[in-house]
Amino acid sequence: MHSKVIAVQGGLDSIANRLRNKGYYVTDYNAADEPIDALVYSENVGYAHPPTMTSERVPSNNQFVVMLNADELSEDEIVNRIDSIR
């Protein structure tokens, strides 16, 4: 079982399900209150700009969050990048 927590923007259900099937804990970005390892987002399903990772929005124990734009990467590329996070 993977220990990474991945926040996925609502509307990116295909990638969220694929990550869950690989054993990752997937949460919605807007509901995440635990430290996350990666954020998958898309400007085409709601964000005009990438979400801002502020100290008010992300718990203080997040030290490094990989942001992956689903508009620029294929699902395979997203999964490969998440797999490579240490």
Describe what you observe in this structure.
The protein has 2 helices and 4 strands; from the N terminus they run βαβββα. The model is unreliable at 54-61 (pLDDT under 50). The chain is an alpha/beta fold and 86 residues long. It has a 4-stranded parallel beta sheet with strand order 2-1-3-4, with helices on one face. The chain is 21% helix and 19% strand. The chain has helices at residues 13-21, 75-83, and strands spanning 5-8, 25-28, 38-41, 66-69.
Structural class: alpha/beta
Helix fraction bin: 10-25%
User: What's the total helix number?
Assistant: 2
pLDDT < 50 runs, ≥5 residues: 54-61
Features:
86 residues, alpha/beta, 4-stranded parallel sheet, 2 helices, 19% strand
Topology, element by element:
Elements: E1 5-8, H1 13-21, E2 25-28, E3 38-41, E4 66-69, H2 75-83
Parallel strand pairs: 1-2, 1-3, 3-4
Concise account of the structure shown:
By secondary structure, the chain is of the alpha/beta class. The chain contains 2 helices and 4 strands.
